[in-house]
Design a protein that fits this description.
The protein is of the alpha/beta class. The chain is built from twelve helices and 16 strands.
Length: 326
């Protein structure tokens, strides 16, 4: 799929974008990877890190449709990673979150159709499911915008990938905990009962490739991710980095105790794709989607939240070791 193709990555200088770029270059043979972002310094640092002539760096913003239209000319595939993603920041700056996460996504859709892009892969989040915060609401609208876009073009296909927390991504809680422990503590947790989904960054990108290649357009692929109590993560990290106090600071505006990857409503149209992925179809899905998925097994859950399958500390330790944190 990606061999001899031009791949465009919005928000490409972030942790997802850099890992995606590295694995595209290692596992595939793209003609060109275009890194599109608005941070000059981040692009310079990435260029020094990769030093590969197949990567082109373009300064631009998904909020700027004209810039998106120019930058995506001749592009085969788009990975849409750009977003304002930190819950408290989106709560404090709702108009900015809307401009990037909703207006920006709409610009990606329209530019892709105008330039005849083959497929757009949108990376979404568990916070888009039954959202209570502005970030989740904007990502939920982004998902619907992407999936509905399949009705706007006969040639450009759109698919969504939904996952939870990725270890080591920019702003991840695990590096924060490690820094707090190393400095003598305390480790700050908003609520001791809080649970979250986790996956290593490389696992997430490899799953992203699979859904990108296998999708026909209109699907929302959901990563089958393990989950755990945040307090257990901190305590397992202390086995490596030393003991310190853990304090509860209180839930922040827009924060949930538990996250959800598939809601009760989604479950009615969700199927087991393989051991790593579930797949949700849109309401009123078309004949092509019906033909491909009508014999797939229905999802065996009425909903799937971060409290459904909780890892024990031994499993958390294995996960952190796989991610290179212990």
């Amino acid at each position: 799929m990606f061999d001899n193709s031009r791949v465009f990555i919005t928000g490409g200088t972030g942790s997802w974008g850099q890992t995606l770029t590295r694995l595209l270059l290692a596992d595939h043979n793209p003609k060109q990877i275009i890194i599109y972002s608005r941070g000059e310094l981040a692009q310079v640092m990435m260029q020094r890190k990769f030093q590969d002539d197949r990567i082109k760096y373009v300064i631009g913003d998904v909020r700027d449709y004209d810039a998106m239209l120019r930058a995506t000319q001749g592009v085969d595939y788009i990975f849409h990673l750009a977003a304002l993603k930190h819950v408290p920041i989106c709560e404090d700056h709702p108009q900015e979150a809307i401009k990037t996460n909703i207006d920006g996504t709409t610009n990606v859709v329209n530019a892709a159709i105008a330039n005849g892009v083959k497929k757009v892969i949108d990376v979404s989040t568990d916070k888009a499911v039954e959202p209570i915060n502005l970030y989740g609401m904007t990502k939920s609208v982004g998902e619907k915008t992407m999936i509905q876009a399949n009705d706007l073009s006969d040639t450009t296909r759109f698919v969504c990938i939904r996952g939870g927390n990725v270890m080591g991504s920019n702003g991840s809680v695990i590096p924060l905990f490690i820094d707090q422990i190393k400095s003598g503590g305390p480790v700050t947790i908003t609520d001791f009962a809080m649970t979250r989904f986790f996956l290593t960054l490389e696992e997430a990108i490899r799953l992203l490739f699979k859904a990108s290649i296998d999708s026909i357009g209109g699907e929302t692929f959901v990563m089958n991710m393990p989950a755990c109590y945040i307090r257990d993560v901190a305590e397992v990290l202390m086995d490596t980095y030393g003991k310190c106090d853990i304090i509860e600071t209180g839930i922040r505006p827009g924060e949930k105790l538990d996250e959800m990857l598939i809601s009760h409503h989604d479950a009615q149209l969700s199927y087991v794709y393989d051991e790593n992925y579930w797949m949700t179809l849109p309401v009123g899905y078309n004949a092509d989607l019906k033909a491909k998925y009508e014999n797939f097994t229905k999802l065996p859950y009425t909903e799937f939240s971060s409290k459904t399958n909780i890892m024990d500390k031994s499993q958390i330790s294995d996960m952190l070791a796989k991610g290179g944190f212990v």
